[in-house]
Amino acid sequence: MVQSLHFNLTQREIRHKIIVERTQTDIREAETLVHEMLPIKIANSLRDGHEVQPEVFESVSIYFSDIYGFNDYTVEYSPLEVVDLLNMVYG
């Protein structure tokens, strides 16, 4: 019985370690993606729970576009691969 408890505890510890590692990986990937989309100063402020104050610019450009099949692409590929595609198209 003691061996069974030890075995179950060890399995639980292994599962916990795997979950923690996957969570840390997901957090790093999410932060990388956010840093690709936003200026680092703003991304870090949002991550730390701070309110980001709007900025005023004398002039800006806004570009709207549509990529055929983009929704299907986003389902099949990781967020970082989608960002890579967008960087290739618009970078």
From TrEMBL:
<dbReference type="InterPro" id="IPR029787">
    <property type="entry name" value="Nucleotide_cyclase"/>
</dbReference>
<dbReference type="GO" id="GO:0005886">
    <property type="term" value="C:plasma membrane"/>
</dbReference>
<dbReference type="GO" id="GO:0035556">
    <property type="term" value="P:intracellular signal transduction"/>
</dbReference>
<dbReference type="GO" id="GO:0004383">
    <property type="term" value="F:guanylate cyclase activity"/>
</dbReference>
<keyword id="KW-0456">Lyase</keyword>
<dbReference type="GO" id="GO:0004016">
    <property type="term" value="F:adenylate cyclase activity"/>
</dbReference>
<keyword id="KW-0812">Transmembrane</keyword>
<dbReference type="Pfam" id="PF00211">
    <property type="entry name" value="Guanylate_cyc"/>
</dbReference>
<keyword id="KW-0472">Membrane</keyword>
<dbReference type="GO" id="GO:0007168">
    <property type="term" value="P:receptor guanylyl cyclase signaling pathway"/>
</dbReference>
<dbReference type="GO" id="GO:0000166">
    <property type="term" value="F:nucleotide binding"/>
</dbReference>
<dbReference type="InterPro" id="IPR001054">
    <property type="entry name" value="A/G_cyclase"/>
</dbReference>
<protein>
    <recommendedName>
        <fullName>Guanylate cyclase domain-containing protein</fullName>
    </recommendedName>
</protein>
<dbReference type="InterPro" id="IPR050401">
    <property type="entry name" value="Cyclic_nucleotide_synthase"/>
</dbReference>
<feature type="domain" description="Guanylate cyclase">
    <location>
        <begin position="61"/>
        <end position="91"/>
    </location>
</feature>
<dbReference type="GO" id="GO:0001653">
    <property type="term" value="F:peptide receptor activity"/>
</dbReference>
<keyword id="KW-1133">Transmembrane helix</keyword>
<keyword id="KW-0547">Nucleotide-binding</keyword>
